[in-house]
Specification:
This protein has 189 residues and is mainly beta. The chain is built from 1 helix and 8 strands, in the order αββββββββ. The longest helix has 19 residues.
């Protein structure tokens, strides 16, 4: 027990040390904005929602100082899937507006870690020739997201990023996302 606790403390110390060592090119605060194109897939307890997916554009606005950034984003998905239950086919359509605010931490030059809060506005609809589905999700909730990704500079001030994240919803609904984004540094102050 004593050795594993000491090892854990060393690992935490090294991670903290890495985060607080200034990045080589850190001069001031960078203000950036950009667009994203994201894939999202529903991870849910209900078979009616689970597996619904969509590709959609989004918007990003953020500030970065050294290795630490704060970022806001917005994405709107129309997640769709066909589900069969008792011989009936239901076409599920889930409208989901996802907005978030979180931290982007540069772990290494090309690797980021993301963590923050998100709010989701979710409304599900089902069409079928069979019986009507009742009690479909229609609510707003706030929760957390966590993820990470790769980034590289395309040209000066323009970065391309590939992130993967899990956007926790409520007990019955969450999203797994893959985001491709381009962000441009608008100004440095």
């Amino acid at each position: 027990m004593g050795k594993s606790k000491a090892l854990s403390i060393r690992i935490i110390f090294l991670v903290c040390l890495t985060l607080f060592i200034p990045a080589q090119k850190a001069k001031a605060i960078d203000l950036y904005a950009g667009g994203s194109y994201s894939f999202a897939g529903v991870i849910a307890e209900s078979k009616y929602y689970n597996g619904a997916s969509d590709w959609a554009p989004g918007f990003i606005l953020g500030m970065q100082y050294g290795r630490l950034g704060i970022e806001a984003f917005m994405k709107k998905f129309t997640l769709e899937d066909d589900v069969t239950n008792n011989g009936n086919i239901y076409h599920m359509e889930i409208e989901n507006l996802v907005m978030g605010l979180g931290l982007r931490i540069e772990i290494q030059q090309y690797i980021d870690f993301n963590l923050g809060m998100n709010t989701q506005n979710v409304e599900a609809k089902a069409t079928s020739t069979g019986p009507r589905l009742n009690g479909l999700i229609n609510k707003d909730f706030m929760s957390w997201y966590v993820g990470g990704g790769l980034k590289f500079e395309v040209i000066p001030n323009l970065k391309a990023r590939l992130d993967m994240a899990y956007y926790k919803g409520d007990i019955e609904f969450g999203l797994f996302g893959i985001d491709f984004s381009l962000v441009y540094t608008l100004t440095t102050f």
